[in-house]
Structures are given as structure tokens and as C-alpha cells.
Amino acid sequence: MTVTVRFAPSPTGHIHIGNTRTALFNWLYAKKEGGRFILRFDDTDIERSRQEYADGIARDLEWLGIEPDLTVTQSQRFSLYDAAVEKLKAAGLLYPCYETTEELERRRKIRLSRRLPPVYGREALKLTDEERAALEAEGRKPHWRFLLPNYRHDPFMTERTEVQWDDVVRGPQTVDLASMSDPVLIRADGTYLYTLPSVVDDVDLGVTHIIRGDDHVTNTGAQIALFRALDAAPPAFGHHNLLTTASGEGLSKRRGALSVASLRENGIEPMAVASLAVLIGTSENVTAASSMQELAALFVPTATSRSAAKFDPAELTGLSRHIIQNTPFTKVSDRLSELGIAGDDTEAFWLAVRGNLDTVAEAAEWWRIVKDRPASDAELSQDDRDFVRSAARSLPLEPWDGETWREWTGAVKTETGRKGRGLFMPLRIALTGREQGPELAGLLPLLGREETLARLS
């Protein structure tokens, strides 16, 4: 059996880091098992689904390094769902209900007042053909519920019916179908809710493992029952904990909270996003993996905590910085070229500045400082101006290398008596226009003697 997983976003907004966690759990599980990864767009909500969002999700996954083996869209598969509906109706497992939202809420409150579980009482099953016809004559259109197998002979005499599975993440799980309402599979307007298309697709596409957020644990019992009603063996299930903001709020795709697109635009490295999305809320230390292969080695589904994981976006910046500061030139050369950083000394430049960058894009500013002119962030006092002019007289002759800065500042110290900050800061400001930045030992050979003298004068 080939392990087959799926990531099934609705293209109704941009995916956020919480969605990314689900995608990566599936991707890494498939890679570790030599399996397949399916990207399935759950776009049956025609009103809110947009192609631009689907394109954006595909682009975000590609940026993270996730490459689907197959991509499908539910809006092109309605014939499969229609056939499943007819099969369930023929078996007496899908029945029409005519209650309004207000009527259902009133019944729920009555059951609660009687200290009964607020589950649907299957009143629609008692309707006669004449009563249904009368309701439809009033203009009511039915929604359709799936009859859960939580009774022996009489559907109004439910009894504890356990559905059990060995969860890939959480271990042994049990759901009692008697504690649940029969799920609505089709709305009154004829559109499908999530459950039926999802199950039908999982059967048709040969999905063997469903890994998703733990907000779906209870739903799993009903879905396993639906798999069996369609004469299909249920796949294995895994439910990981959810991510929240640092304040404990849930993430929302529609509000764009911590969207992958915004993180990319802000210069965060993809492996920083992947590392945090996968490792936070597990027993593993959150470290910046350098590749998907390295992250896969750290990925252990059963190491995931059962409680929600809070994270601070600032953690992403730290992980991203660590990745950048350890990225070799060969892996970043194309990106530097796109920023206009090119030439024989590009590698030396990258090695000189990478330790001071939060994003790769910041390298462009340092390239301008080195190749064009100093920044204007800091100014020298008249006393320091006189000092740097005198320091120019001690500049060594070329060729220059990584030792030139030490040799030069040693000579200046001997000549002027200055040391520490009083020696180094004026030289840094004169050469770069900033009080902080990359080590000048690496920048000085890039500037060259002629340019250095010009900046000191």
C-alpha cells in the first residue's frame, strides 16, 4: 500500500501558518513513508471560492518546498458526490429535514433545559409523505442529514456506539456516535457541506492517511461511519494540536492572520516558517532546519502536544536570521542577482554582510553602501572628522585582505593614542555612514584603498 495523504484548503482566502502546519505534517509524513501528497481544493462554496486564492495557495506551498503529486478541485467532481447521495438515499441513510434555524435552536434549548444532550431528535424521520408535501408547498426546501448507525432497530432509541481508531498523532481515540447529531450533508439550497465531498474524494483518490487539526476529532466518528456506509474502508486518521497567536486567539484564513504570503513579502525565509510550523508544540526543540530533509528527520507526529501551541511571530525573525547567517553563497547567488548584486566580489560581499542581516533583501542596501556611497544615518563631530583624516595617512598599501583592518587600526592606535569605541566608531561612520553593521574587516577589501581614502577625506 502506498501512503497517500492530502491537504485540502478552501480557496476562500490566504493560508496562514496554522494551515501550513497541516500541509507540512502531511507532506513530511508522506516523504518519510515514500508516499504521495495530493493538493485538493475544497471549492464547493462557489460564492466565496476564488481562483486567485487557489493560485496563491499553490504559490505559497511551492515557496515552502511542497510539491504535490496531484492537484484536484472539488468543483469539477460533483458527479461523484451526486452518485454517493443517490446511494445513501437508496439505503435509507440520507433523509430530508425541514426545520428552520430558529426551530432547531428552540429544540436545542428545550433539551438543555431538560438536561438532555443537545442533539437532533430525528423528528424529520416521523414526517409522512403528506406532511413533507405540505411543508414543501409552504416553500420550504429540505436539508439532508446522514443517519448515524447509533441504534439497533429503532432510530429513536439510540445507544452508546463507539467508533475507535489509533490516531497517528494522539494514539487510541474513541467517539460515541450517540452523543452526536446526524450531520447535515446537503444544505437547503442544494450545496454540499464539507463532509460528503471530502469522504467521497478520499475514497476515489485512494487517501490512506488523513492528518489534520484536532478540531476535527469529534467529526472523525461520523466520517468513519460515512466511509463504511459507502462500502469503503476508512483511512488512518491523525489530529495535531492547533496554533494560536501569542495572546491565545485562533488564526483566521479570511482575516489574513500571519498569512504565508505576508511572511514571504516581509522577507522571512521559507525554512524558518516550515521549522516553526512543524516543531512548535512538540517535544522537539524549535530549531531552524536548513532543508526539508533535515526537518523530516526531526518530524515525529507522536511528539506533538495535545494542548494548543502559542507562538510569537518574532520567533520567525530569529529563525530566519539564523538561516540567513548560515546560508552559503551558492544557495543565495540567484536571489542576490535579482537584487542587482552581481560581480566578481559578490561572494566575498555575501560572506561579509550575511551575519548582520535579518532578511536577504537587506543585502541590497549594504551593496549600495559598499558600491555607491555611505548611508546618512550618522554624522561625525569635527573632532572625529579630523581624526579620520589623520587615520587615512596610516592606510596600508594594497593588496588588501581580511587582516588589513587589524593592521590599519593597530597603526592608527599607535599613531593617535585612540582606542576602543573612540577609535573604531568614527572609522565605521566615515566608511559606512552607520554606527552598526557588518565587520569592517570584511568590508574594507571590498571598498578598496582608493574608495576608502575618498570616504576618509
From TrEMBL:
Its EC number is 6.1.1.17. It comes from the Bacteria. Pfam families: Anticodon_2, tRNA-synt_1c. The lineage of its organism: Bacteria, Pseudomonadati, Pseudomonadota, Alphaproteobacteria, Hyphomicrobiales. It is found in: Cytoplasm. Residues 3-316 form the Glutamyl/glutaminyl-tRNA synthetase class Ib catalytic domain. It catalyses: tRNA(Glu) + L-glutamate + ATP = L-glutamyl-tRNA(Glu) + AMP + diphosphate. Catalyzes the attachment of glutamate to tRNA(Glu) in a two-step reaction: glutamate is first activated by ATP to form Glu-AMP and then transferred to the acceptor end of tRNA(Glu). Its main location: cytoplasm. Belongs to the class-I aminoacyl-tRNA synthetase family. Glutamate--tRNA ligase type 1 subfamily. A motif ('HIGH' region) lies at residues 9-19. ATP binds at residue 253. This is Glutamate--tRNA ligase. It is an enzyme of class 6 (ligase). It comes from Nitratireductor kimnyeongensis. Keywords: Aminoacyl-tRNA synthetase, ATP-binding, Cytoplasm, Ligase, Nucleotide-binding, Protein biosynthesis.
